[in-house]
Amino acid sequence: MRYRPLGKTDMRVSAVGFGASPLGNVFGSISESESQRAVHAAIDGGINLFDVSPYYGHTLAEKRLGAALCGRRQSIYLATKCGRYDLDGFDFSGQRIRTSIDESLRRLQTDYVDLLQAHDIEFGHLQQIVEETIPAMQEIQSQGKARFIGITSYQLGMLAKIAKANPLDTVLSYCRFNLLVDDMDLVLTPVLKDRNIGLLNASPLHMGIITRSGAPAWHPAPENAKRAGAQIVQLCEENGFNPAQVALRFCIDHPYVASTLVGMSATQQVEENLRAVTMDIDPTFMAKIEALVAPVKNTIWQSGLPENADG
Ligand code: NAD
């Protein structure tokens, strides 16, 4: 496993991070015991960053992750979130953020998280995020319940704007840098690099699009992006590659991202994704994927309040 500094935090995080949303049955129902084995296989394989949220499976993912980490909490970095609790359930008020962390700590069976992130801030008002949410997270940090704080969003412009003017340790961007999309580097990466803010890149498989099972029913991407994902999968298989490994490896090779968060819930996925760190991929094959994707590259969708949309 490769490890990289997460901005100016004291954490050196694994190039592959464990995305725990599938533990909440977000991508289909999974068994408790298998998810526990997946978490243990990830730790044994050198993955040291686990990302979860109260939103994933209405707290189920946090509960399962907390149970799986019993006795192993100290060997990993744990990141959770606050402010999002349902598809349309958001509360970024200072008061809710303060109760949210205590609830998360109980479910995660720990007395601190390494990283607390305001979840999907494009669904909140910028003024409230800056004047209430972030100060409440700083307070939580000073109490020792979270060692570092950050924000997450699909909207790159909003992430960049807030990162420029607020005391953040990390930013998590998702579905904006992978085989289908790379606009994260236009808007966000330079801002974070200048300030040495840690960057986490989530959803290397474009939330399941670049897998054999394809996109889940709730996936917001337009049909042409889903079709391109299916074509990548086909091209990989015709050339003897595992599509998830190819897509993950592309993301891992990003020069500034500290950790690529991939959603996992089975030991086989963990093993395959660990192998992606060291596998070789012929550049001419990557060029074929690039050519295939070109007509739909950077196809994005709306997320959050219109006022927070990328311009
Ligand atoms: P992803 O692109 O990582 O895809 C996950 C899907 O791919 C799941 O169905 C998983 O079972 C499958 N998969 C993983 N490895 C596989 C393999 N080797 N073979 C076949 N299928 C495989 O999407 P994601 O889970 O949404 O993103 C990763 C993590 O990033 C999340 O779990 C979450 O922790 C984080 N995230 C955060 C935000 C946010 O904060 N707003 C948004 C998206 C993701």
The gist of it:
With 311 residues, the protein is an alpha/beta fold.
Describe the protein in words.
The protein has 311 residues and is an alpha/beta fold. Helices cover 39% and strands 15% of the residues. It has helices spanning 32-44, 60-68, 94-108, 126-142, 156-165, 184-187, 189-195, 223-238, 243-252, 267-275, 283-293, and strands at residues 3-5, 12-14, 16-19, 49-51, 77-82, 113-118, 146-153, 170-174, 198-202, 259-263. The protein has an eight-stranded parallel beta barrel with strand order 3-4-5-6-7-8-9-10, surrounded by five helices. Strands 1-2 form a two-stranded antiparallel ribbon. α4 links the parallel β6 and β7. α1 (32-44) runs parallel beside α10 and α3 crosses α4 (126-142). The longest helix is centred in the middle third of the chain and has 17 residues, at 126-142. It is globular and about 55 Å long. The termini are far apart. The chain binds nicotinamide-adenine-dinucleotide. The site of nicotinamide-adenine-dinucleotide has 28 residues, from β8, β10 and α10.
